[in-house]
Write a structure and sequence with these properties.
By secondary structure, this protein is of the alpha+beta class. It has 4 helices and 10 strands, in the order βββββββββαααβα. A hairpin with a 5-residue loop joins strand 3 and strand 4. The radius of gyration is 17 Å and the shape is globular.
């Protein structure tokens, strides 16, 4: 283990809040593009009371990796709460003064994370990247200011790319 790498399990905890009172109705899923997406499932007659509630700033991921090719479905919720299938694992950062959710999401977005998670997945018919494996992920966790600087730098670049794409689209039109 590199000296500045830490185990993710020291910074996250599982969340298992169910929609027992049916107070949340917005159903989302998690895509391999690492975003929450509107569900396309046929939900007629579905009992949503056992679905998990995800709140803003929390993560969800699909432990079953065998259907996703080389990608792991993991996302950070950046909007109001939603519900997701109980097959997803939901977790949150225990202390946001130590680890920023946006920084962790950048780590999850790296192809190296996907390769690691697929390598660590186990099973024959259904490969699983379970909670214990997620907790064993090692990543560099610099001080909060450095994390914020990395997130800000990434966002500036991403915004510029999006702007250039809109310009290109306008020119093409």
């Amino acid at each position: 283990m590199k000296s500045n790498y830490k185990k993710l399990g020291d910074y996250i905890q599982p969340v298992d809040k169910r929609n027992r009172d049916l107070s949340v109705s917005r159903l989302l899923g998690v895509s391999i593009s690492k975003q929450f997406i509107e569900s396309i499932a046929n939900t007629v007659g579905t009992d949503f009371s056992n679905y998990k509630i995800v709140r803003e700033g929390q993560f969800a991921y699909g432990p079953v990796t065998s259907r996703n090719g080389d990608k792991i479905s993991v996302a950070l919720l950046r909007e109001p709460e939603c519900i997701i299938s109980s097959s997803y694992a939901v977790f949150e950062i225990t202390d946001k003064t130590q680890l920023l959710p946006e920084y962790l999401m950048l780590w999850f977005s790296r192809p190296e994370f996907d390769r690691y998670a697929r390598y660590k997945s186990h099973g024959s018919v259904r490969e699983i990247f379970g909670w214990d494996e997620m907790c064993m992920v090692e990543l560099p966790i610099p001080d909060l200011a450095t994390q914020q600087e990395i997130v800000d730098s990434y966002n500036v670049i991403a915004d510029r790319i999006a702007l250039k794409q809109r310009i290109n689209d306008n020119l093409a039109a």
